[in-house]
Write a structure and sequence with these properties.
306 residues; elongated; 14 strands; Alpha-Beta Plaits; 27% strand; Rossmann fold; alpha/beta
Length: 306
């Protein structure tokens, strides 16, 4: 298998990538051609936002070619109005061989078991038989959550996920009712159930997240009931946890606060340290929130409803 590598200006990166995919490329990636040099350019937006620009000043497009595909023909598709009209002879391009790999094994090798605090392990399914990991239901109270990183909804490695897991590990003593709002993979709901919560409900606006939560709960042999927001039954919970982003957390403040029963706890993350004050202010009419713990620029806010 071969890759077509092209140099591309910022203004044409998106159009060229689309044109190459339409012409039969198996995949196209856009890389910073100045990466690992003094001219390297950061390109991010804040969580939940798009970056202001969609490409770098100098870009490297890498197109994976199907077997038998003529790279000259692929470059020729860029000489047209749909791709910006750049003359094909002027395009700087080359072809390189891609070594044969067992891509499943390569992908799996990037994700090992992740320890969260003293009790929780996130274990990819291909590591379930590792002898050096604590067994599920171990006598020391260790909790194993089996999750397939690299599929939908992340790997469980984000600092906000760890903060919420650590809070649950410290505060779920057994018998609680828990709501995981914005459940994604269901990792927080599953952890709460494994830690001893008596009843756990999960909600997400994405139907695929609801299905993923149900599948992951089954894989971990726990019962978690998951719904879209309109399906959530009435009632309060001893613990409500929401790991989303600051703006939706502020919009959801009346609803989330109303779901916490008297004496119960609200746990919020997905919040940058500089956003903590404004999120706490949004919940002030119902309860006082404070930073429980911070990590890598993110915080976990908690409060008790009196």
């Amino acid at each position: 298998m071969r890759e077509l590598v092209l140099c591309c200006p910022e203004a044409l990166a998106e159009a060229w990538a689309d044109a190459l995919l339409a012409a039969g490329a198996l995949a196209v990636s856009v890389e910073d051609a100045d990466g690992d040099t003094e001219h390297e350019q950061a390109l991010f937006g804040e969580p939940g936002t798009e970056p202001e620009v969609q490409a770098w000043r100098h870009n490297r497009l890498v197109a994976l070619l199907p077997d038998g595909q003529d790279p000259v023909q692929m470059v020729a598709v860029l000489d047209g109005p749909d791709a910006g009209g750049a003359p094909a002879p002027a395009i700087d391009w080359s072809v390189r061989e891609v070594p044969d790999e067992d891509w499943v094994r390569v992908t799996q090798s990037q994700f090992g078991p992740i320890a969260v605090g003293d009790r929780i392990w996130i274990v990819p399914s291909w590591h379930r038989e590792d002898a050096d990991l604590p067994a599920a239901g171990a006598a020391d109270g260790s909790v194993r959550i089996e999750l397939d990183p690299g599929l939908a909804f992340g790997t469980g490695s984000h600092p906000t996920t760890h903060l919420c897991l650590e809070w649950l590990s410290d505060h779920v003593g057994g018998g609680e009712t828990v709501l995981d709002y914005g459940c994604g993979s269901g990792i927080l709901a599953i952890a709460a159930r494994l830690l001893g919560a008596a009843r756990v409900h999960a909600v997400d606006i994405d139907e695929q997240a609801v299905l993923a939560t149900e599948r992951n709960a089954q894989a971990n042999h726990v019962q978690v009931e998951a719904w879209l927001p309109d399906g959530l039954p009435d009632g309060g919970y001893r613990i409500v946890v929401a790991n989303i982003l600051s703006n939706p957390l502020k919009v959801l403040a009346p609803m989330l606060a109303s779901r916490v029963e008297s004496g119960g706890s609200l746990v919020l993350s997905g919040v940058l340290e500089r956003q903590a004050g404004e999120v706490a202010a949004a919940y002030a009419p119902w309860m006082a929130l404070e930073v429980w713990r911070a990590r890598d620029g993110w915080v976990c806010l908690t409060g008790r409803k009196t």
